[in-house]
Amino acid sequence: MRVTRLAMLACVAALVVVTAAPASAVGPQGAGPGGALGGPLGIGAGSRAGYFAVLCAFSHRNRDDMIVFPGQPGRSHDHTYFGNTSTDASSTLNSLRAAGSTCLMRGDQAAYWVPTLMVDGKAVQPLGAIVYYVRRTSDAVQPFPPGLRMIAGDATARTAQSSEVTSWRCAYFGGAGSSVPNCRLPILQLRVRFPDCWDGVHLDAADHKGHMAYSTGGTCPSSHPVAVPGIQLVVQYTVAGGSGTELSSGGQFSGHADFVNAWDQQALTQLVDRFLNHSRQPQQTFV
């Protein structure tokens, strides 16, 4: 079942990459299954595209949050996890690196999670997630430092957030919007865009956001001068959306996502140098 779901996710991911990137960006040096990113372990684009992508299967669910409520199991709303198979309230960088991963890319033991999608009060298991690592700045980017923690989006939002941060979309039809659409085909996406500028000092902040910022026009603000990859997390669900669809954090507008860097640092550095820093120009839109 897991292989079938990942195969379906790979088909969607391949369509997104091909339609979103210029023709010159996807070619022999790109890495689909059997390509340059290590066989059937991930997907990516050619070195001029400014991004690479990782497929991650669903891992598990719980009501923990190692960033907001560390050491307090069951304190949070329900979460859906991808990547690291051990993520819970007591996780640390060392425990994450010692665990397995559902991501099909060697070295990616990072933890990714989102609020659980509910339809008529029942939890939905996602098809999986596509994690895009994107260069958004004119300057070269640095790999995330080990243990960096980030939250993108607002779990308390009850009105529309910026579609540049979080949005919903039908996989094959229509643009992104703040409300859950009613898709013609049952492939609904939650899309969350993380900040891509770091203050260069702190791995976290009191509000779990202050150490990070978004670039503007390809430039990081002076308060957060270190350019890092801009993660775009695209979660795929085999539901059509519409009425009765909401997030465990409350309603349709509370989309958010969390990330903890537990990558093998050498592997991450190599990917960033090859696919992001060799790009001719940064990507400024959702892939």
Strand order of the largest sheet: 1-2-8-15-11-10
Average pLDDT works out at 86
Distance between the termini: 27 Å
Structural class: alpha+beta
Domain count: the total is 1
Helix content: 10-25%
Largest sheet: 6 strands, antiparallel
Radius of gyration: 17 Å
> Which overall shape is indicated by the principal axes computed on the Cα atoms?
globular
What are the low-pLDDT stretches, counting only 5+ consecutive residues below 50? 14-42
Task: Give helix and strand order, one letter per element, not per position.
Answer: HEEEEHEEEEEEEEEEEEEH
Beta-strand percent range? 25-35%
The count of β-strands is 17
Number of contiguous helices = 3
Care to describe what's here?
It is a single chain. The protein is α+β, with helices and mostly antiparallel strands. The chain has one domain. It is 13% helix and 25% strand. It has 3 helices and 17 strands. The strands form 4 sheets. Strands 1-2-8-15-11-10 form a 6-stranded antiparallel β-sheet, with helices on both faces. The protein has a 5-stranded antiparallel β-sheet with strand order 3-4-5-17-9, with no helix packed on it. It has a 3-stranded antiparallel β-sheet with strand order 7-6-16, with no helix packed on it. About 10% of the residues have low confidence.
